[in-house]
Specification:
The structure is a single chain. By secondary structure, the chain is α/β, with parallel strands linked by helices. It has one domain (about 15-250): TIM Barrel, CATH 3.20.20. The chain has ten helices and eight strands. It has helices at about 25-40, 65-75, 90-95, 105-110, 110-120, 140-150, 180-185, 195-200, 205-215, 245-250; strands at about 15-20, 45, 80-85, 100-105, 130, 155-160, 190-195, 220-225. The chain has an eight-stranded parallel barrel with strand order 1-2-3-4-5-6-7-8, surrounded by four helices. Helix 3 (about 90-95) packs parallel to helix 5 and helix 5 runs parallel beside helix 6. The longest helix has 13 residues, at about 25-40. The structure holds phosphoenolpyruvate (PEP) and manganese (II) ion. Phosphoenolpyruvate binds near residues 48, 105, 107 and 199.
């Protein structure tokens, strides 16, 4: 049976919303968060299993033990589930667990060896993939990662704009540099462009204004971090929204049709 594409332009209602915790922490945290999000009508959940941390010594994700929890969630709730993969073994474990969508994180997109390893492991596999921009503002590196995944035969593809890192603290955790996704889009007008306001903002108060800006620029979707108890989150506590706060934000967003 041919699986229905997620990221093809006529498969979803714009904006496509993907939401879920930065990291999967416990079965209860996962279920309570997913339950809250399903109540808001969200059907694609994100959740970190393997977490690429900048410095060692912080929580690096639960790894494979979280995968059966995802399988249980999918039996109870009508959701598709997206996780980050950073190696061929992550892809293999994720496929075995029936994960629906993979994404390549900003620290992997910078490395052609890593992206190529992931691409090789995806050959002959029919799964939707999202590719985040690299941490540094290098458009070619982002395009190169997309080309490697396309060459592996993946055609259900989206890109995610999550901003670019800085040396000193700035208003944003990661500067949006909107001209980069805009330029990307002029070169790949058919690819779905998703904005990740959570990692650009770094703090909850800034998430709505960034999400609105993305919609004003006609982005196709939003990937937002949501946690049942954000202040207690093991990673990215300052930027996650409760499912209820996410709903309020989504209700206030205005969709516009400004083409670029
Ligand atoms: C994440 O999505 O939680 C994450 C680690 O993101 P990024 O790769 O954008 O830093
Ligand atoms: Mn995060």
């Amino acid at each position: 049976m041919e699986l229905k594409a997620i990221f093809h332009k006529n498969s979803y209602q714009k904006p496509l919303i993907i939401a879920g915790p930065c990291s999967i922490e416990t079965p209860e945290q996962l279920e309570q968060t997913v339950k809250g999000l399903v109540q808001q009508g969200i059907s694609i959940i994100r959740g970190g299993v393997w977490k690429p941390r900048t410095r060692p010594g912080s929580f690096e994700g639960l790894g494979g033990i979280a995968l059966p929890w995802i399988q249980e969630i999918k039996q109870k709730y009508p959701v598709k589930f997206a996780i980050e993969v950073a190696s061929a073994s992550h892809v293999e474990e994720g496929l075995k667990a029936g994960i629906d969508v993979f994404w390549i994180g900003a620290r992997s997109t910078v490395n052609p060896f890593t992206v190529q390893e992931i691409a090789e492991s995806l050959k002959g596999v029919n799964i939707p993939v999202m590719i985040k921009n690299p941490v540094n503002p290098d458009l070619s590196l982002w395009i190169g990662a997309v080309e490697r995944i396309m060459k592996a035969g993946i055609n259900d593809l989206a890109v995610v704009h999550r901003g670019f890192s800085n040396f000193r603290d700035t208003v944003h955790r990661n500067s949006p540099l909107w001209q980069i996704p805009i330029e990307f889009r002029t070169q790949f007008p058919e690819l779905m462009m998703i904005n990740d306001p959570s990692h650009i903002a770094g703090k909850r108060s800034l998430v709505p204004v960034i999400a609105q800006k993305a919609l004003d620029l006609n982005f196709d979707g939003l990937m937002i971090e949501s946690h049942i108890n954000p202040d207690q989150a093991w990673t990215d506590a300052a930027q996650q929204l409760t499912p209820a706060d996410l709903q309020v934000m989504l209700q206030h967003l205005k969709t516009r049709k400004v083409h670029f």
